[in-house]
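Hey L., structure's done. Input below.
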Amino acid sequence: MKPFIIQTHNLNFYFKDFKALSEVNLQVPQGSIFGFLGPNGAGKTTTIRILLDLFHAKPGEIELFGTNYNQSRNEILQRVGALIENPSIYKHLSGRQNLEIIRRMVSAPKSRIDEVLEIVRLRDNADKKAKNYSLGMCQRLGLAAALLTDPDLLILDEPTNGLDPSGIIEMRELIIRLNKEHGKTIFLSSHILSEIEKLATDVAIIDGGRILYQGKLDGLHGDAQSMELKIELDSTEDAANIIRSLNYTISEVNGRSINLPIERKSDIAKINKALVEAGVEVYGLQSSAETLESIFLNITKKLN
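Output:
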């Protein structure tokens, strides 16, 4: 069994009287791509700030590399790189000059600049001013900065936020290479569930400051023991009201179809009967293995 590179022990955190995190126990295996999922306000950003010691946890509540921050803060932070949403970049300077400023701050060797530029595939554009970079290039420059100290752990908060499809693919491929070829453990917070599904080996779902699921991505699909039902019909509005009255959670209403997670095949007959008896014309019902998005919505019960 691989050791845990991040562990939290009954982590609690308050903003005055508001309890933002409650008994959070994270276990991030070394060498994993760990997907951290949750709706807005669930506690993801608060957790990340605690992991980076920007918010301070109580002694014993958090360990990185098996050590508490209060024991060896500087040594821990030297082994951690972070990219939090949009990186801070001096637009009037080149990519190389931006990295040089950060290199001096973290005391990395000068040769490391060309190494990280090669890793993030920015070497050909290193001497262009950052104001001429695309958003995807800026994100990769921010990731290059996070790699200057050659960290063992990368903490990435919404790294594909705002990127176009080609930028998302570039970032996805880069994250996989950093994990597979460079041996980085990656803690990845994202609301783009399809990206987590393509990247993560392990996941945790947080809502209301509590961890609702944690484990292997395959285990999440297995534990769900449910399917996704797609219903084609003549009136989605009437049908949606009927389905909700039966205490089902609708994941998507799209044109003349409704998607929702179900736990057993008998649910199909139950829903179909209720719709037909209410006079709704049902054109088709199709079930399939449940997607990560449907599982997420079913677990958090946030969408009604």
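The mean pLDDT is 88. The domain at 225-300 is CATH 3.30.70.270 (Alpha-Beta Plaits).

-- N.
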